[in-house]
Specification:
The chain is an alpha/beta fold. The protein is 54% helix and 7% strand. The protein has a four-stranded parallel beta sheet, with helices on both faces. The radius of gyration is 22 Å and the shape is elongated.
């Protein structure tokens, strides 16, 4: 018995299929650079990063740098972690860069996929945040994936609950890539907006972020508001006098 749905599906693609189809040409460009970048010496990778940053500074759009940035990150991952991004992971990286959600199952390499758009957007020099669900993952991923970023000449920071010193927090926020939890980033934002002096603020501009387990953070966790509380001030009779 013929399945009409399967027959129609061969000729009429859904929106997701059409979107993925558009990415094939970019994937081909990334793959065409693999041989070129595999011939680079280790010390050439930070130099390539400076070269790409210079292009962005001179007005080159990040979209135009996707093939070079992704191919460079893939080769850096292969040399530091022994892991090479598959084509489907490259697609996931492009989708994340576009501000869309990439749904992947456990074990499909979500953490590795995130390095692609993180590196690309770090070329702006404005800093990239990677939001995770707990301190353990933030610290683990900053050290694990941090090997790739450092190999490429980037600085990596991590914000956890145990960091009390504001200067250390500020230093971590000023890195090219900063890992942390939604709570830590949220509370630092609230505290910054209560400061009397801009120099006391720990965060800088918010340019680009990757949210891990986005359904948990933006839906489940978002139901619990972030509240800063403290002891009330001493009762004053000023109101009565006025």
């Amino acid at each position: 018995m013929l399945n009409i749905g399967n027959i129609i599906g061969k000729f009429v693609k859904n929106s997701s299929q059409r979107e993925l189809g558009k990415l094939n040409s970019i994937i081909e460009k990334i793959n065409s650079l693999e041989a070129k970048f595999s011939a680079l010496a280790d010390e050439d990778f930070p130099k390539k990063t400076l070269e790409l940053k210079s292009k962005v500074k001179n007005g080159t759009d990040l979209e135009a740098l996707i093939p070079e940035a992704f191919a460079l990150t893939r080769e850096a991952a292969r040399r530091t972690l022994g892991e090479r991004h598959y084509d489907v992971q490259l697609m996931g990286g492009i989708i994340l860069h576009q501000g869309k959600i990439a749904e992947m199952k456990t074990g499909e390499g979500k953490t590795l996929v995130s390095t692609l758009p993180v590196y690309l957007n770090s070329l702006s020099g404005k800093g990239v945040h990677v939001v995770t669900v707990n301190d353990y993952l933030a610290k683990r991923d900053s050290e694990w994936m941090g090997q790739i970023y450092k190999f490429l000449g980037l600085s990596v920071g991590c914000i956890t609950n145990e960091i009390i010193d504001n200067e250390i927090r500020k230093k971590n926020y000023n890195c090219d890539v900063t890992y942390g939890t939604n709570n830590e980033f949220g509370f630092d934002y609230l505290r910054d907006n209560m400061k009397y002096n801009i120099n006391e603020m720990v965060q800088r501009d918010h340019f680009f972020c990757i949210v891990d387990e986005v359904d948990s953070i933006l839906i489940d966790e978002a139901r619990t508001p972030l509240i800063i509380s403290g002891p009330s001030e001493k009762s004053s009779d000023l109101y009565i006098k006025i």
